[in-house]
Design brief:
Pfam families: CRISPR_Cse2 (PF09485). It comes from Halopseudomonas yangmingensis. This is CRISPR system Cascade subunit CasB. The chain is built from eleven helices and two strands. The chain has 213 residues and is mainly alpha-helical. The protein has a single domain, classed as Peroxidase, domain 1. A two-stranded parallel sheet has the order 1-2. It is globular and about 45 Å long.
Length: 213
């Protein structure tokens, strides 16, 4: 299926990655961090991880640094106009991104990794839990689901893709059923269910494939 078109532009995606890198331990030879982010580090990451709601997240300088620059890079038709709702939406995103341990940079959604089982093992996230996440409507509930999903994926995902998906998820809330097939939840469901089936079919011996036709 054709991938969902991202809402964040390239400059915004780069800022998300730089912001996330600024929260990580630094090592010699690492790519330089933009000047305004150099004061951030593991302390800010720990504070974000302890936040339980949007009010606490919005009280963190790291959250405001993420959101303020994304708003500035938004452009005329971007998803983050200069208003309080944009800051609140990015606050929830910041609280999840702070729990990412490894930026895969593979362009794939978190849902692919949640439904991907190794050999005969169960997928990292059960179907019951995945469906509960898709049904969630209250932001506090979704925030807990998103954090839990990331934990089940070992904290590894594409940082920029996750930020775009979680922002889009919030924007999609309340849209009509006619627009549902363009939404993040539909694409996550496809990635969780059908991509797992496609991977299994790819590993199936050619003889079995012929017999099933």
């Amino acid at each position: 299926m054709k991938p969902r078109k991202p809402r964040l532009n390239e400059a915004q995606q780069r800022w998300v990655r730089d912001w996330w890198r600024a929260l990580q331990p630094r090592a010699e030879g690492d790519e330089p961090i933009p000047g305004e982010l150099t004061a951030m580090g593991r302390g800010e990451r720990a504070q974000l991880r302890r936040c339980a709601d949007a009010d606490e997240l919005l009280a963190q300088a790291a959250t405001l640094l993420l959101a303020h620059r994304l708003v500035a890079l938004n452009g005329e038709r971007g998803p983050l106009p200069d208003n309080s709702l944009s800051y609140e939406r990015m606050a929830w995103v910041a609280g999840v991104l702070a729990n990412v341990k490894d930026d895969r940079r593979d362009g794939k959604s978190l849902a692919i990794h949640l439904g991907q089982a190794a050999d005969a093992e169960r997928p990292p996230m059960s179907e019951l839990r995945f469906r509960a996440m898709l049904r969630g409507t209250a932001m506090q509930e979704l925030f807990l689901h998103w954090r839990r999903a990331l934990q089940l994926a070992g904290g590894k995902t594409d940082v920029a893709r996750l930020a775009d998906d979680l922002l889009s998820w919030q924007i999609d809330q309340g849209q009509s059923a006619a627009q549902a097939s363009n939404g993040v939840k539909f694409h996550w469901a496809y990635d969780y269910y059908l991509s797992a089936r496609d991977r299994a079919a790819a590993k199936e011996p050619e003889f079995n494939k012929e017999m099933s036709k």
